[in-house]
Amino acid sequence: MQTLDDWALTAGVFLPVAGVILMLFVPREREAVHKMVALVTSLATMAVGVFIATRFDYDDGNLQFVVDRSWIPVINSRYLVGIDGISLPLLLLSMFITVLVIVYSWDHFPSPVNPKAFLMLILVLEVGMNGTFVAQDLILFFVFFELVLLPMYFMIGVWGGENRQYASIKFFLFTLFGSALMILGFLALYFLGGETFSIPRLIESASGAISHDTQLWIFAGLFMGFAIKVPMFPFHTWLPDAHTEAPTQGSVILAAILLKLGTYGFVRIAIPVLPDAAVTFAPWIGLLAVIGIIYGALCCLAQTDMKRLIAFSSVAHMGFVMLAIATLTELGINAAVFGMVAHGLITGMLFFVAGSIKDRLHTLQISRLGGLLVTAPRMMWIFGFCSMASLGLPGLAGFWGEFPAILAAYSPAVELSTPLFRGYMVVAALGTVLAAGYLLWLYQRAAFGAPRDEELATHMTDMGRTEYLAWAPILLLILVLGVFPSLLFGVTNDAARAVVAAIPG
Amino acid sequence: MTAFSTPHLDYLAIAPELGLTAALVAVLLVDLIWEDRARRWIPTLTGFGMLAALVPVLVMARDGADRVLFGGAFVVDDFALVNKALFLLAAYVVVLLSTDYVADADVYEGEYYLMLLSSVLGMLVMASARDLISIFVALELLSIPAYLLAGWRKRDLRGNEASLKYYLLGVFSAGVMLYGMSLVFGLVGSTKLVEIGEALRDPAGPSPLIVIGVTFTLVGFLFKISAVPFHSWAPDTYEGAPTPITAFLSVASKAAGFVAILTLVFVAFPGRSEVWTPMFWLLAVLTMTVGNLIALRQTNVVRLLAYSSVAQAGFMLVPLAVARDLPQAQDAIQAVVTYLLVYAVMNLGAFAVVMVVAAKTGSAERSSFGGLFERSPGLTVAMTAFLFSLAGIPPLGGWYVKFLVFRSLIDAGTVAAVVLGVIVAVNSVIALYYYASVAREMWMRPAPDGDLSPVRATPSLAAAVILCAGVTLLVGVLPNLLGHLGEVATFALG
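Above: the input entities. Below: the structure tokens describing the complete assembly.
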């Protein structure tokens, strides 16, 4: 078993590469083969994930499945991977969503139809996403973090909507700028924090070795890298464009996983390595987070396109996650991880449904929809279910992302100003009201009443087979996590304690 | 009066140069004797000459001993060996690029390879030159054939302009450089770099005039690497020259310039870092910013690559802007040499793809790359890899060298270094935009005139593309393959 454990994470990250290499040698015309290879590869990767989950020790807050091998000795960077209770749910989420996206793709290939290239990109994306969640070396983390850029750029740029070229390059430029500053921060940590890129070792040595002022500068660099990825207000402007233009699969992966890379970076690197700087920055992060919540919600109210509306709702929801992180408490980190998983499932699902509607109607102009509940009752019931989950209805997963976040803001870490965070709490609570407003209003306009455009209505059909297959597991999970939140809180709790171990409170 | 005694010669140490000279003579004779009948064998012969010269380089690299010849004017150390290998391999790829291009164009063929060989010979000498005079001889040996090669398409007006511009500015900068060298010699009394280095380390050393000497000497090579403001020849020359020569100039010739700068700075002038670090800081900022901003406006891919190579030179100058004396300078040398190696691979690869596309569509305009993904996906993926590697996106080789540049900056840790780091970061973003614009054309735009026939590479071009793409990806995933090379790139001071 020990050898299996040693190889588990490596296999979970690099198995998709095997699929990509295989597909490289299959001619493009043989689409069925490509679909099978991609599906089998992603399922095998998922199986590795399940194996890891069964062998994972849930009572241990330390890193597990650790592998430490030489990689680039010249710069002292190592192939160091490992997971704890925070990485595990996100790693599983990434594997899970990839399988479902491939299932959904079965008969939903965006034009220009090219299953070979499209599925290969999805698998490469999976390597980057899984790798980011297991990397425990800053340079390894950086490489995986950046690895997702190219496939996503092409996914949006080649298979996206009308404005795809603008959206794809904007996504790329924003993220690259952030990560260039992030790498400067990583290097500063290396030279000042004890000549190591290992995250666990930096957590021990960095904050003691670096002066407070320098820590602030380094944190600012990391902040730029992660905040653009999240994205936090005011760096969010790439997100609505990218989401709106991306093909359905791209939107789902973007919402479900890619945004989490940013928040995960805060939890994994920025806060535990530089706790003092985190305390100084926390009020400002909290401020940007609540601005994001309100601003995202107000933008949602003004949107005329369904996909764009869901994209702005992501800005608001990630605001809750960031607010939870900014409290720097155990509860806050737990809430943040739950919020990430819940948002991944729920918003991913909303994008799935929106994509399926667009597939049939070729428009998502809210003013032209209406009465969809008549023409496609099952699909719209699901959409309603997800809207409820998204606005935080108790009993569904979304609630456990938002409610504990608000609760955590009531009593932030002792070094933070309690009145300030209580103020944030009130504003965030207002945000949930707005969320209910824009989601229900969207649902009302899209689903209720009579079809507003008779010609469009004739194109609407209800769910197909792959849609059932791809969506059912997500819906089930939203419900299960909503009823038994301890399933996830139990996993994250020990690791969350470790994240804020150095912060009093 | 003592009789002239022949110096002791270590033939292994000069075997690469001798081998290349032999290849040069062979090409000359074959072309003279058999004329047209042997024409198609000449590229092969040239290529083999390059590879044969690589053998003694590898033998000496295994051996590991430093060899000092001609009273210290010619030194074979690890630094020299790594760079000789770089020159020979880059030149070999240039031969691959040239094979069909030269055969199809209406130009002299045998002489082309002759010139190429003698220019590479100059580069090999440059890697070992440790004396102002041998450096100057090496520079002229590599430059004069290059002036001719730039104008090889002699019936083409732009070719003439390319050659003339390159020649005039080259000669002018060589003049400035000689003036600088004469000042250095006049103040120090030696042309040997090591002795100059010792004299300049002495704080009570030569008069302030040395500042002019140091600066002017470096200017000659700043011209070679097309650093702003000495870059004005580059775009026109790159566009007018035959495309393989453009690749050669932007990779091998530029590398030779950097090799000379590194030798001068770290062997001869380390004591005067207060003179050249601010100079390189300013040059690096100017070079990358101006190169990038002008590259943004280009629609011709060769011109775009030309300006991008100006900008890349700026990135390579960055480690010099924060380098100090030798022990601490190790990282800077490693960063620059590794950058040169990776840059050579990715840039040559990009030029190879441009040549394939231009051979099919008859133009290197960006629009002629439209729809390439539909026409030949393999070529498109390779070009995409080269472009994003140049932009420094993991997991392609370019990320590692960009990382080394950042590393040298943060290691220095001064305010000026960190400011420069942020400028480099902003420039990386600008550069990504124009590299991505070519990728966008290939992946997201329709083919010009709706022509969807596949674009095929000739065998030698295909070999060049596959070779470069393979190395680009390999280095990106396992950078340590180069880490070792960079580490041994140290000078023998003696």
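Note for the figure: The first helix of chain A runs from residue 2 to 24.
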